[in-house]
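Thread: Newbie trying to understand structure tokens

Hi all, I'm a second-year student working on a class project, and my supervisor (Dr. K.) asked me to get a predicted structure for one chain before our next meeting. I've only ever worked with sequences, so writing a 3D structure as a token string is new to me. If someone could post the tokens and maybe explain what I'm looking at, I'd be very grateful. Here's the chain:
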Amino acid sequence: MRIRQFQRRLALAMSLAAIASQSSTAWAQEVATNIEGVVKAGTKIELIKEGFKGTEGPLRLNDGSLIFTETQDNRITRIAEDGSISSFLSDSNGSNGLGLGVNGEIYAVQVLDTKVGIVYPPERAKTLAYEFEGLKFGRPNDLVLSSKGVVYFTDSGVNGPPKADAPAVAKPAVYRIDTQAQLTRLLSDIERPNGIQLSPDEKTLYVANTLGEYVLAYEIKSDGSLGPRQNFARLQGWRKTENGYSSGADGLAVDAAGRLFVATSAGVEVFSPHGAPQGIINVPKNPQNIAFAGKNKDILYVVGRGAVYRIQTLTTGFTGRAK
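---
Reply by user tm_fold:
Sure, no problem. This is what the structure looks like when written as tokens:
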């Protein structure tokens, strides 16, 4: 009996030691490989904190700090440049992806009462879109705001199979809200549209398809319509999962050189402005979204699975708009 008790205690001690070792490894992780002009091998991946609920929507504010959404806890959280954490906005209506207006307004796609609009400052909050052709959005996911104030956003559809008694919702799609607050559905043929981004010159719209092998790209024409679908970049995150094939493609970011950064199941994948793979930044937990922040916009923040990391980069994020 005593031998068995000793064996159980020894096994428990070894298990706890292994967990502690894994935790310290996560804190000490570094960028594994050099990506020319982007990040040096050996650069520290700093864990800001883990244990957040529903990490999404990272966005740089004008002072260099970063805000992101805790969708499951219904709030927006701020991280200052010194790494300190504070509450930015409570009762955010499940804000997910974020954008920054020219006057400091925070635009958000929202998943509790599904809609798109301004959530901050509270006294200027308003709804820009809440349905299409009489159907509520399924799950607004991400948005990007152009330098002219045009909102592009994705609706990825409800998570999981719909309930039998649930009301019908709009199908997964990509939308535009113009400066006159007119809503247009641009795309409705993407299985699960997720992250969305504009090229620095705002002539190309990028869309991450979580269930697809490629990041998609579309020419934005002078009248606001889109050109044909292009497979812009093949994702290393594309793999078979227990629920079928998926790339895990999620948030997108662009740097000053026009490179596209993509959060996928493989890590943060980096592509040239022409879609050529440049390398992958591996982080301890699968990333969900990414954004450049800091005073010089040369720090890449990565959020996902309840954790927030930041990485000093050689490049800077595009400065012509917030993201």
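A couple of things are worth pointing out once you decode it. The CA atoms of residues 19 and 178 lie 50 Å apart. The chain has one domain: 31-312. Feel free to ask follow-ups in this thread.
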